[in-house]
Specification:
alpha/beta; globular; binds alpha-D-glucopyranuronic acid
Amino acid sequence: MKHILFALLLFCNAYSATIAQEATSPLPDPLTFNSGKKVETTAQWTKRRKEILETMTREMYGVSPAKPKDIRFQVFDEDKNALDGKATRKQVTVHVREKDKEMQFDLLIYIPNQVKRPVPAIIGINFIGNQAIHADPGIKLTKAWVEHSGMFPCSKSGQATDACRGVNASQWAVDSILARGYALVTLYREEIASDRKEHMFQTGVHTLYPELQNREDNFSNMAAWAWGLSRGMDYLETDRDIDAKRVAVFGFSRLGKAALWAGATDRRFAAVLSNESGAGGAKQFRRGIGENINRLCTVFPHWYAKNLCKYKDKDTELPFDQHFVLALIAPRPVYLATAEDDRNADPAGEFETAKASDAVYRFLGTKGFSGTNFPALNEPIYGQIGFHIRPGGHDVKMFDWIQFLNFSDLHLQK
Ligand code: GCU
């Protein structure tokens, strides 16, 4: 009798443990191999990092082509007296050739004049074309397609016009970035890969590698945008005015998702600044709050590899969650900026990612993330992993830039 009761007790315990596990859907651990073995040494971490990179590439972001052998930089503009003498403006066309095909895109670079060079830099992709980030009439108008929306009603038949100059300037704190001693480098999303569903994989870098599409881990837009940022870095390594060892990669929203993947895949980026990247960026899919995999696959099927759609309505079955992207960035500094009304991007879910990343950052010898409780509005958390939530909606505000610059000062100005 005693034995039967004991067995029943064991069974009940095991059963309730399973239920609890299902209900909370435990977070996968970046410090545990797929085999279940724990990472205990840095040599093991090197292997585990590779395993994470392979898994995330296959299941979510898709493959990327190898670094191109045939890449050429044409500096077509240099004005040492731009922005009333505050900056040197350079514009560079990056040409990439693969067999008989070529793609090209432009970098717009402002380098502060008041500080000693080489300077640290912030590089980020923009939404509306290089000419949209500042009203400077010297900026070349993009020839790529430009959306015409309520927010940016400036293009005609998809082409940028002079009305597109500075239309997105409020999200790019050019003067503050320069005043704090950083160069700003930007490139346009459409010149790298089309963000229009009907043109997906038919423009920019995708034209060079059509063979990378007909597979489940296909070369996605996120991977393409990250590729563009890495090619920008290839140029920066050749520019003596820039210290390529001190370059932070920045991005907002979908381009914040791309910035995180660029930081994860290219260790030349010394820091990552992600603004409201949300689903497929810094938020946890497992919480089930805000945008989910189903919506990403339906509305933006070109953003991630086809494989991600296996997890439609099964977000908790992903073999990782977005703290694995931070694990790939670790131990390099990363900052996650969120906004109170940006519910779709689940600010608390981004905070959970920062918390879940603490262990890897500590394992790699940094102080990790010091946030334990969700912070009050406008109370940034600095450290190796930074975080803030500010009032307001989906946007890039001066408050966000000030925190990015303070955070960059801590890590890139020492
Ligand atoms: C949509 C999308 C988000 C994305 C945003 C943007 O709102 O659902 O995932 O971040 O567009 O890039 O502006």
